[in-house]
Amino acid sequence: MLADIIENWKIYCDESNFVGIGSTRKVHRIADYVVKIHVHPIGYKQSKRELEVYNVMMQKGLANFLAQTYYVDESISVQKYYQPIEMIENQSFEIDMKKNLSIIPKRYEEVLDLLDKDFDCFDLKDSSNYGLDEKGKIILIDYGMSKDLYKNQWVPLAEAGILPQIEYDLCINCGVKKELRMYGDNDDEKRCYECGKG
Question: What does DSSP assign to residue 173?
Fold first, then answer.
């Protein structure tokens, strides 16, 4: 099935299996896989980095903390699917060792420390970067952004209004307070993705 998904992802990925969108990648679920479509070249860099990090962590015996990345090319990445963590009041939250102890796997802090020091990984505690495995423990599903990539490439593009930043506010269309994709300081179109803002 994996080879079929890789070859025919454009046919498979439609609104019926849309999972979510970030600033650089759009995600669709197909059976036990997710296809991350690169909507910006930084997304491709993130996906390549995820494959590299996963392979190194597998050699270290720590890959079970990360969603397996199976395939990456300039258009897509294919990864194992995990159930997303529910937002709290329509927004993501920071994973906390005390508050979220029931979903924290063994060696969590050790792995986070390694990802930080050896791979310069960025934003490792945001709940939107995790899914839940079959035991209800967190699995890192978005781990390709480095601090260097964020600071030197993502931030300048976000500040220029090219890549969206996330702002928590009321959608003027549906009236629900949620995370909105905002393009620079002059963007005043406070509509959510579900109401048509891409």
Answer: T
Structure tokens at 159: 């500040």
Dihedral through CA 103, CA 149, CA 110, CA 65, nearest 10?
A: 50
In tens, the pLDDT along 65-102 reads: 999 999 999 999 999 999 999 988 888 899 998 889 89
156: Cβ contacts below 8 Å, ≥ 6 apart: none
Distance separating alpha carbons of residues 52 and 143, to the nearest angstrom: 10
Going through 24-155 in order, the beta strands assigned E by DSSP cover 25-30, 33-38, 69-72, 76-80, 83-84, 130-132, 138-140
Strand pairing class (76-80; 69-72) = antiparallel
Contact 130, 108 (CB under 8 A): no
pLDDT in tens, 25-76: 999 999 999 999 999 999 999 999 999 999 999 999 999 999 999 999 999 9
Say how far apart CA 190 and CA 192 lie, in whole Å. 7
Using CA atoms, how far apart are residues 161 and 115, in angstroms rounded to an integer?
29
Give the helix/strand (H/E) hosting 180. Answer: strand 177-182
Q: Is 151 exposed, middle or buried (0-12, 13-18, 19+ CB in 10 A)?
A: exposed
Please choose, from the candidates 159, 167, 166, 168, the residue with its C-alpha nearest in 3D space to the C-alpha of residue 186: 159
**C-alpha to C-alpha distance for 66 and 170, rounded to whole angstroms:** 33
